[in-house]
Amino acid sequence: MAKDSIMQRVKAQLDQVPLGALVSYADFVQEPAQFAAVAAALSRLRKAGEIIRFAKGQYYRPHISRFGTVAPSDQAVFAAVGAATGQLIPYATGVSVYNRLGLTTQVPAVVTLASTRRRRNLPRRLRTVVRPALEQVSDVPLLQWLEVLRDVRRIPDTSPDRVVTRVAKELRQLTPPARRRLTELACQQAPPRARALLGALLENLPGKKDAGALRRTLNPLTTYRLGISAKILPNRAAWHIQ
């Protein structure tokens, strides 16, 4: 295909792309043999100031506000990473989520994404942690609470007791089906310390089957040093939590 034809296709498709949405070579052509021509066209458009390079092989049409160029939204970035890793969409985790949930006042300089594999060539403000593939978007809030339990001792500007108190409140508000799904996800992918803590919390709520399912996944000889007081978690000893 002629270079002029590639350039025309790229420009025509870019005109249909929302401002701030990320595009890559595969958004313009399906044949890998044509990627070089698309890359050259995008490079020319970047030099002309029509698009901005976001990361290797990724560009966006900038939205210009009175404060300057607006970077792509987090959701646009998440979707682009998801397309590259084959996931429905990577989900945010880490301090940015803990801040949103009211667990910490710290605002992170780097946003952490859960992805099926580590990603390179991401912007400096993004990093990935490896997690199993997302099965359905509705699982994201539950998975984020599992991340809270995983990091209970590492969440900045708070204490494990305060975190556990907040998680217990959230669990009480979940519907029974949501609790069952949370238990399923924990059994599938949460580390033992998070499963033990979730089991201890669920044991204090109506319906003990979920707690029992989690207990069966744990080594009865393992102790979990999480820094949680007996006042906040009265049944901690039964779950070998300290």
Description:
This protein has helices at 3-14, 35-47, 74-85, 95-100, 140-150, 160-173, 176-189, 192-203, 209-215; strands spanning 22-24, 52-55, 58-60, 63-65, 68-70, 91-93, 111-115, 126-130. The chain has three domains: 3-70, Arc Repressor Mutant, subunit A, CATH 1.10.10; 73-134, no CATH class; 138-242. It has a three-stranded antiparallel beta sheet with strand order 1-3-2. A three-stranded mixed beta sheet has the order 6-7-8. Strands 4-5 form a two-stranded antiparallel sheet. With 242 residues, the protein is an alpha+beta fold. It starts with a helix and ends in a 27-residue tail after the last helix. The model has no long low-confidence stretch (mean pLDDT 86). Strand 4 and strand 5 (68-70) form a beta hairpin.
> In which range does the helix fraction lie?
40-55%
Largest sheet: 3 strands, antiparallel
| Average pLDDT, all residues | 86
Question: Would you identify the regions where 5 or more consecutive residues have pLDDT less than 50?
Answer: none
Structural class per helix/strand content?
A: alpha+beta
Q: List SSEs in N-to-C order.
A: HEHEEEEHEHEEHHHHH
Can you summarize this structure?
With 242 residues, this protein is α+β, with helices and mostly antiparallel strands.
Secondary-structure topology with pairs:
Elements: H1 3-14, E1 22-24, H2 35-47, E2 52-55, E3 58-60, E4 63-65, E5 68-70, H3 74-85, E6 91-93, H4 95-100, E7 111-115, E8 126-130, H5 140-150, H6 160-173, H7 176-189, H8 192-203, H9 209-215
Parallel strand pairs: 7-8
Antiparallel strand pairs: 1-3, 2-3, 4-5, 6-7
